[in-house]
Write a structure and sequence with these properties.
Layout (H helix, E strand, L loop, with lengths): L1 E5 L2 E9 L5 E4 L8 E3 L7 E3 L12
Antiparallel strand pairs: 1-2, 1-5, 2-3, 3-4
Length: 59
């Protein structure tokens, strides 16, 4: 999961590289569709960091 700035909007998405140098932005929320960022649009995308969380029971 990565916090991103896409066209000036903040988002938290999974990022999957795809053929041709594009990226697929994937949300865990089913209300949001996957979004394809083409190589020519990468200038409008900025990775702000990386989110990591571990949820579970500690024994």
């Amino acid at each position: 999961m990565f916090p991103l700035l896409v066209h000036g909007e903040r988002r938290i998405k999974r990022v999957q590289p795809v053929a041709g140098g594009a990226w697929l932005l994937i949300s865990d929320n089913p209300r949001y569709e996957k979004e394809l960022i083409k190589p020519q649009d990468m200038k409008d995308l900025e990775i702000l960091g990386r989110c990591e969380i571990r949820i579970g029971r500690v024994l």
